[in-house]
Amino acid sequence: MEKVRILIIEEEAQDYLNTRQLLDEQTSTLNIDWAPNYEIAVKRIKQNTYDAYLVGYHANHLTQKRFLNWLYKYTTVPTILITKTAEPIDPSHLDSYRTDFIAHDQLNWLLLERIIRYLANLLALQRRERNFQTIFDNAFQLMILLTLEGILQEINQTALKFFNVNSEMIIGSLLWEIPWIKSLPQTDTVFQLAIVQAAQGEFTHCEVKVPNAKNEMVIIDFSFTPLTNTAGETEWILMEGRDLSECRALEQQLTHTTLHDQLTGLPNRHLFLEYLDQAITAAQSNKDKHVAILFMDLDRFQLVNASLGHDMGDWLLMEIAQRLQGCLKKDTILARSGGDEFMILLDQMQDLNEATLLAATINEILASPFSLDGYEIITAASIGIAYYTGAEESTDLLRNADTAMYRAKIMGKAGYAVFNQGMYKQAVSRLQIETNLHQAIKKNNLVLLYQPQTELASEQLISTESVIRFYHPQNGLMSSVDFKPILEETGIIVSVEEWMLRMACQHLKAWLAAGLIINRIAVNLSAHQFRNKRLINMVVESIKESGLTPEYLELELTENFLLEDIDSTITTLKRFKDMGIRVTIDEFGMGYASLNNLKRLPIDSLKIDQSFIKGITFSPEDTAITVATIDMAHALGLTVIAEGVETIEQRDFLCDHGCDFAQGHLYAGPMENTAFLEWGKQYNKMVNTTVLSTGGYGQRMV
């Protein structure tokens, strides 16, 4: 059993010895120290922990009185004053929670233990009361203790500060008689009902608007909790109040954040659809009400992000949003869908032409340069317009406008298109093609065709260009013109062109093994592939896997994307040249290549676009451009390929003006692998026969 440690503070040694002897005879559970004076007592109390103090009491002892005052401030330990028989106690020496007294002639351990335990319990209760009061007063919530009749008994400091009152003003008052509650219509009735329910043992709560210390009306959520005794009977009601002002403000902020674009502050797609739903509902009840939406996508916005950074792109979007708002009527809804897309709702139109006029106006205002951090940026938008016809849901109308916007882009950007049902059917067809293209390689739905390239001077078969076709399950064989844009937009073009390169190299190897005499094979690369980090490795792997040498491969690239980053382009092309791979600029004349950049590119040849070849026999402009291109290329040490040669007159014109190679239906159209092998053998045999019969090259033939 743990011993009870007691300090006896007694100046008279004989009284200490008598007390000590008495206690030792009655119990062995004590550990007793003695302080013969108050100075030693203070030292022992500061150095040790005691369960109780026994103080020999002396009335009118000034030093003892000062000691007791110190003791009550310094410790919270039960203190028993041992008095002489019939000696009166000064009430100022007693502390109601920790002090008691006993006459020396009545002293015994059983009584002393009971007093110590009683005082210890009182002190523990006092600590709990103080802790509760501290928690009560400093609680974050407003707290009020009520009787079952609704009379206010306690109110914490948080509530007093909130309502700017003092406790004396309201303690003892009926809750609904407090002035700030009584002045609020119906609030007193709400509180009375809540107290009746709580008095019956039911938890309840209510939200009311009350004035705070600044006389601002705020929303408080009050709860009423019944407090029961050990018998389970409700004795008190705890009323707690939580200020919902910040919570509601945060909810509003979150709602705004959820429904608005963080960058521009405009409504987002979700909120735009809500406005659109409201406009459609209004239009359904008023046939004279017209609704249209404009779906905008900025043209070449990605170029700004790529060249100047995303921060500059964000800045541009904010400036565009401001400029758009400046050209709209006050109640017109402008929203940002995300990225570089904006949406406009027109629900107050007097004339259906307002939508198309607004689309034209938008591109007019966007045509003025944006000045951002020293950069002059010019942008434009492709805009799709969809009118509500009475049958569409909001999502359908937005989809239709999006579809029209893509049509506007295809038509040349910086313009607008109005939705019609034909666009929807085309969009569905496009989506189906995209889905099929994703599986095209696995399902062997891609086909490589080959169109021959001949040397004009000798008519010899020199090369072939590989062209891709897609076998659509419903539409049959499709030209690359119809599906290549989809490949590029989805990024599938990278894997498809890798497959093309591998297959072309394998087919050429097989032709050579079968005895076909041909110098090389040409494969087209897109801008996506050219920017692919694996490009060099992919080309090397394809050549090695086929067993060819690099001299057998020719890569065709369009001039526009080559000039986007001229230095990086030169580095990549030089690596191809160092390997022995030929490089040709395809569709030359359709882009914007300058002569200065052209002479810097490590290339081998130019391919004149077929749009110029088509008119060389009757169009002075096409004739001049073609001849100039041939002369310029030769001056730069490049060979020239003419694409789209279909007539003998075109061939003869090109031959007479020094063009090196020709490709077109005059010789043959694109053919599959085995068909090209057979055609090539027959063509070479025919050429060789002609050479033998004429004694040399120079006899032009088909």
From TrEMBL:
CDD domains reported in the protein's UniProt record: EAL, GGDEF, PAS
Domain EAL: 430-684
Stretches assigned to the GGDEF domain: 289-421
Domain PAC intervals: 204-256
SUPFAM superfamilies for this protein: CheY-like (SSF52172), EAL domain-like (SSF141868), Nucleotide cyclase (SSF55073), PYP-like sensor domain (PAS domain) (SSF55785)
Listed InterPro entries: Biofilm_reg_signaling, CheY-like_superfamily, EAL_dom, EAL_sf, GGDEF_dom, Nucleotide_cyclase, PAS, PAS-assoc_C
Matches recorded under Pfam families: EAL, GGDEF
UniProt cross-references to PROSITE patterns, sorted A to Z: EAL, GGDEF, PAC
Name the UniProt record assigns to this protein: Diguanylate cyclase/phosphodiesterase
